[in-house]
Amino acid sequence: MKLFLLIIGSFLLGSIPCGVLVARLKGIDLKQAGSGNIGATNVLRTAGKWPALLTLAGDIMKGAIPVALGKYLLNDLTMEGIIGLSAIMGHNFSVFLRFRGGKGVATSIGMLLIYSPYVAMVTILIWLSVIFVTRYSSLGSIVSFGLLPLSLFLLDYTKEKLIISFMITALLMIRHADNIKRLIQGREPKIGKRA
Average pLDDT of 49-71? Predict the structure, then answer.
């Protein structure tokens, strides 16, 4: 029962559309602005730096809080991973947005910060490095999370964590399918380009 409640609670917390709420404070309908995505990158393009940072912090917390609770209450790597995946799924398929949502990058990072802190740091470093060099937020996400299972295998290996890392990567790649197509076609917008 405890696990069931944590999974449901995690999904509902993950479903809170931080970007939509923050953008609404500035009079912007995020689902109709820019790329239509609810994440921090689209908030940056449409509402500016501080709303984007607030969105990023909120989305990270949505992944971190449930896993921290799971670690405290259950202390089971598989269950903690499932709870974190539930938060990511909530963000990606929000009950408050008719099961539409974002791509799950910041929420995945929040989950990893509790689940595997060293791997989270490496993932963030790769993410920021790729963005700094290319100015493509999506490419930073694709590369850093594409390397997530390898990073985890090298730095914090357990069978349970490795399986969860593959599931995180799969979720993120599925959600970035359109970005991958646009990157190949040269049509993906760079960071700093206003909507």
Answer: 96
Question: In the structure, what pLDDT confidence band is assigned to residue 13 with cuts at 50, 70 and 90?
Answer: very high
Residue 167: predicted pLDDT: 98
Residues constituting the chain:
195
Report the distance separating Cα 47 and Cα 3, nearest Å. 38
Measured between alpha carbons, how far is 195 from 186 in angstroms, rounded to an integer? 17
Domain extent at residue 141: 2-185
Strand partners, 94: 100
The percent of residues above 90 in pLDDT, for the chain, comes to 82
Angle at the Cα of 176 from the Cα atoms of 17 and 31, rounded to 5 degrees:
35
Eight-state DSSP code of residue 105: H
- Is 139 contained in some domain? yes
SS3 of 98, please? coil
In a domain, 192, yes or no: no
194: how many CB neighbours lie within 10 A of its CB? 9
Say if 158 falls within a structural domain: yes
Structural domains of the chain, count: 1
For residue 37, tell me if it sits in a domain: yes
